[in-house]
Amino acid sequence: MSVQNWTYILVGLTFALYIGIAIYSRAGSTKDFYVAGGGVSPLANGMATAADWMSAASFISMAGIISFAGYDGSVYLMGWTGGYVLLALLLAPYLRKFGKFTVPDFIGDRYYSKTARIVAVICALIVSFTYVAGQMRGVGVVFSRFLQVDINTGVIIGMIIVLFYAVLGGMKGITYTQVAQYCVLIFAFMVPAIFISIQMTGNPIPQLGMGSTLNDGSGTFLLDKLDGLSTELGFNEYTNGSKSLTDVFAITLALMVGTAGLPHVIVRFFTVKKVKDARKSAGLALLLIAILYTTAPAVAVFAKTNLINTVSNEEYSSMPVWFKNWEETGLLAFDDKNADGKIQYVADKEKNELTIDNDIMVLANPEIADLPAWVIALVAAGGLAAALSTAAGLLLVISASVSHDLVKKVFNPNISDKAELWVARGAATVAVAIAGYFGINPPGFVAAVVALAFGLAAASFFPAIVLGIFYKKMNKEGAISGMVVGIILMLFYMTKFKFGWFGGGTEADWWFGISPEGFGSIAMIANFIVAIIVLQFTPEPPEDVQEIVENIRIPSGAGEATGH
Amino acid sequence: MSEKQEKATAYWKENVRYLFILLAIWFVVSFGAGILFKDALDSIKIGGFKLGFWFAQQGSIYVFVILIFVYVRLMNKLDKKYGYNE
Fold first, then answer.
1. A561 lies in some domain
2. How many CA atoms within 13 Å lie on the side-chain side of A324?
């Protein structure tokens, strides 16, 4: 059977599964809609969190980015997993004990202020919208490459599916589809990785294969071989980076803290029964994420070595079929600058003849390694699962921010549960439409901004939540000024160096040599400092708020999440 | 201070002590071994891996997973000790 048919079958089956689950787990109340009724088991929540967290970027792009960045790619590996340690130790158990529906709920109540709540809602919307546009685009890209449908049709199909289970099922529907999506995506990522690891090193475990010797009888270690190939072609050694130490440090920190501060990840921990379950499911989530995150660097090494071996200094006319296929998609481009008919893939931009898109390392990997058709189709289903699960989680944060935090808590506190549920569904529908619009007409800034969503989350939420739990005397004036200064500083820095506003600037002008991707760390520190300074000049929080803090520090008597 | 509150304060102190220890390890394996001392550790090789590079792309992640499960265990014990478990 052809790859195309396999893809139709696998994608069709998985979509039918998601829709079936959505119908089975419809939301009947706002509690179902926001926190899945509050009775999700730690394992199910761990799987759902893992799928929620691993987006199209993790599944499709990350291994490719590492493949071309080598050691520098470690910032993503450590940053996007290390954040879970912060989440599990500093946030999840206490927020679960607090027992409300959303992150702005916590900020609004803990800082006894509508202003704080609204600032938090704005931050949540900025972070979630930048993120979700990228996901819808990812859905469209997978559709167009594997099913030969138009990219816009792909986005629309994706929108309808997400709409169906997010609007109908809310958090309840999303949770159980995410459990299924985790299974699909991890299977789809691991199968090709294991095949290729066996092919190249004879070791079926990719994490070990990466550090093994090559299968060709030479006895050379794979990583040494790749270091050698890289330097031969004029690139950096694969296992050494080119970024400065300060910048690697800052980016890793910003990604870790940003991960812990992302609202769509935090709300997942409101869905479990007890504080104990929140801790356990954070551990399970990271374990399940780590399976993909420790395999990705191995895939990166296999794919890069394979690619160099296949193309470097070979005749263009003798290239395998996949090369021509991917040329058609524009992800591979060959330009015979010296007209010798051979492919020169080198670091020197003047002489390099091959341009390769990051995404190809995962998408084309099974073809490069000559794996069976069903494995190639599996990658398409996995990419879709990754993109859809993350999009759904983000849409829920957006709709809850509007229906719960704005409509119920600010504008119309007397709204009935039923009416609020309908507002939530309406908000989710509007959010899907906006996300779809950006997926079809991607503004140039989306790609640049998605990575910065972490900086924004790090600069705004993380300090406010951590201070709210660990610093009983922190008051509203301190927290609000911290959040405002943090997010404005981050927005200023990223627009200055990414879009050239405020006079723009180049790498030489970076403050402390830190790139916009890493600047979230600085903005976060600024947030903490401002909050603590302002606190010195403003009154203490009221007694009852200090009691709330005392209370969330103790795990027992958590009860179920409520909106009141 | 009431007895109830004393208990809560003592529980919180122990909790914060665990956090300091676990986060110190979190920092050492990622920012320490994977970034600040990466070059020094790279002179040690285990199989095909240079040690600093291994920590940055593999080791730190394994340690993160272990850290959370150790935390879960410690806190479950602590909850029992203070009678906060349910």
1. no
2. 6
The domain tally of chain A equals 1
Query: Which domain range does residue B36 map to?
Result: 3-81
Q: Is the dihedral of CA A204, A205, A207, A212 positive or negative?
A: negative
Rounded to a whole number, what is the largest CA-CA distance in chain A? 79
A477 in a domain, yes or no? yes
Q: What is the pTM of this model?
A: 0.93
Cβ within 8 Å, pair B12-A553: yes
CB contact under 8 A, A248 and B35: yes
DSSP A509: G
- Rounded mean pLDDT, A408-421: 88
Host domain of residue A465: 3-552
Residue in chain B lying closest to A301 (CA): B57
Rg (CA), chain A: 24
Q: Give the CATH number of the domain where residue A522 resides.
A: 1.20.1730.10
Nearest CA-CA distance, residue A237 and chain B, Å? 12
Task: Check residue A28 and give its pLDDT.
Answer: 80
Assess if residue B54 is contained within a domain: yes
pLDDT band with cut points at 50, 70 and 90 for residue A187: very high
Flag if B72 and A245 touch (Cβ within 8 Å): no
Does residue A563 belong to any structural domain of this protein? no
Q: b/e map of A433-463 (b: 16 or more CB within 10 Å)?
A: ebbbebbbebeeebeebbbbbbbbbbbbbbb
Q: Which residues of A292-307 are buried (b: 16+ CB within 10 A; e: fewer)?
A: bbbbbbbbbbbbbbbb
Q: Is A201 an 8 Å CB contact of chain B? A: no
The answer to whether residue A169 is domain-embedded is: yes
To probe the interface with B, which of A279, A291, A302, A469 has the most B CB atoms within 10 Å?
A279
Beta-carbon separation of B8 and A554 below 8 A = yes
Q: Is the pLDDT of residue A408 over 60?
A: yes
- Inter-chain contact A74–B34, Cβ cutoff 8 Å? yes
User: Over chain B, what is the mean pLDDT?
Assistant: 93
Chain B residue with the nearest C-alpha to that of A71: B53
Q: Could you report the per-residue pLDDT of A247-277, keeping only the tens digit for each?
A: 999 999 999 999 998 888 999 998 898 999 9
Does pLDDT of A131 surpass 70?
yes
The per-residue pLDDT for range A443-457, each reduced to its tens digit, is 655 555 667 788 989
Share of chain A above pLDDT 70, in %: 97
Q: Give the total number of structural domains in chain B.
A: 1
